[in-house]
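tl;dr need the bound structure. longer version: we got a ligand (adenosine-5'-triphosphate) that a collaborator sent over and nobodys looked at where it sits. i said id run it. heres the input, straight from their email, havent touched it
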Amino acid sequence: MWTDLSLPALARRPAEARAPSESPPPPFLRGPGAFILHYVRLRPLPFVALLTMVMGAAGCAVASQYVMKLLVDAMAGPREANSAAWTALAILIALIAIESVLWRLSGWLGCRTTVGIGVDMRLDLFNYLNGQPMRYFAENLAGSLGQRITSTAGNFGALTNTVVWRALPPFTDFIGALIVFSLVDWRMMAVLALFVVLVTGGLIVFGERGRHYHRTYAGHSNTVSGELTDVISNMWAVKAFSARGRERDRLARDFHVEAAAQRASWMYTEKARVIHDVSLWLVAGAMLSWSVHLWSIGRITPGDVVLVSALTFRILHGSRDMALSLVDMVQQFGYIEDTLRVIAQPQSVVDAPDAPDLQHRGGTVEFRNVSFTYNGGRDAVHEIDLHIPAGQKVGIVGPSGAGKSTLVTLLQRLYDVQSGEILIDGQPVRTVTLDGMRTADADVPQENTLFHRSVMENIRFGRPEASDEEVYAAARAAYCDGFVRALPQGYDTIVGERGTKLSGGQRQRIGIARAFLKDAPIIILDEATSALDTESEMEIQRALVRLMRDRTVIAVAHRLSTLTAFDRIVVMMNGRVVEDGTPDQLRRQGGLFNRMWRLQAEGLSLDEVDVEVEVENETVLRAGSGRSEVAAARRGR
Ligand SMILES: Nc1ncnc2c1ncn2[C@@H]1O[C@H](COP(=O)(O)OP(=O)(O)OP(=O)(O)O)[C@@H](O)[C@H]1O
Ligand SMILES: [Mg+2]
């Protein structure tokens, strides 16, 4: 029924050389400016209200300085005309009250708005992140990605804080003060305006130049978080290999690199402060001397001197706040930019435009001349042609590194193939939606990890709407009901991060129950029972064949004896299918499968079979020289 492909390969269809398509991120993720504007545009009213309140409050503050001048002047005049003083005082008190109310209202509104945006932002980033292909997650540390998403919301909050409460009030002060100053002496106004524009402009240029310091620091900070999470999640290895000191030193090196970047970023901002302080001292001194001089020659009143000195200090301090907050804004921008650079990378495995959902027709699987390489190196699978009819139970075997996991990973479209095509129920997986396509298969991967949730939630993850009874039935089919009930809280027991509170075999069985529960026509198991003893493994494989009668099963397995109940065995080596047939056929053929079978019967594992592919399309199997002696010795030769 199936051909043995170990001899000269079948005529191949010409490979459709197709580069994986890339989908760029949505426009709002393409840069920090677009990103921030996107969220501001989503809530225009609160932002307009916020700006109005803050400008109103700052306006009140400037106006009270002017009213203070009126009060001083009224008090310096004849005592009989004191009604002007009382009026000025009343206005002053009212302005102070209005200013306070506006500040507090802006605080309340700012809190509501930025916290709400923080939620949207994190969800949007997570939503985009989970569309990245598995290749991306192999290259980026989980802790670092988590940290980036969390800190972006914080950075946005800090940015809003900077703009609304640190840059805008001094800006309003500045405009108000120019108006008030022009009432006293327009030359003073011109000098002050010139100074503020020069200093603020200079500090902005200075800040912009320092942007790379802030970005570098943000990058290091995220890397360090990722490293730290990585070490914590590998704590077992750290202890088992007495590596606490080593890991501490390694972290210390990372921390020091991060600290150097942080110092550079921070000190750059401090330099800006120094430049500003010196300028402020010079200008404040000059302005005050000038106003006292004008008073001494009778050109301005004492009230004007009070006004000039109060406003000068206010504006000069304000100009520093404004310039430094602009520098900080550049810094926050740098952090957000860094996060977007990592998270908003183009996605390579995406839905085709207007892709339909997959139409389920029983679970037929077809590989047409499929080749795939991970990083442009050697093909991990090469020119695979396989047709698996609906309902067939197929075992995939072969030595380690043969490409078995890669093959089943491609079927789930966790990666896109570079050439050829994979079809489920006659529909190319690339042409249907990813979510729709993945309803077709239930998978138990080689490295099965669980969520830090209860056993019940972990199994029900396969089908969230499943009833408790259905969960128990799936658990029984996967031989895990017994041990789960014996756990301290039974099905409510929390399994620990990645399932660490369970044994490897228990974790695998829960993974299998989860896959059973998902009502998918195709079940894919990648060494899903490898951590079990041979007997349990056999039981599960048999249950699979018995219970999953109407489903297609593709199971990668190392222990060949567990696959005897399967309809068909596909043997892989060096990325190719080298044998294909029923277990009996393959054993009778006396090829690679039979050889592996005999070696395993003698107690050797598949990995001890040293196999090589030589000469074009011709497969030669030989036992490795050293190991063949071991094998021979075991055979008693
Ligand atoms: N994420 C990856 N990035 C780069 N190369 C990879 C990746 N995963 C697998 N490979 C390479 O692809 C080849 C096939 O690996 P694969 O995991 O498919 O083998 P396998 O047959 O499942 O082996 P095993 O029996 O050990 O699980 C190997 O050479 C491996 O090094
Ligand atoms: Mg594998």
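gonna send this back to them w/ a short note. The longest strand covers residues 365-372.
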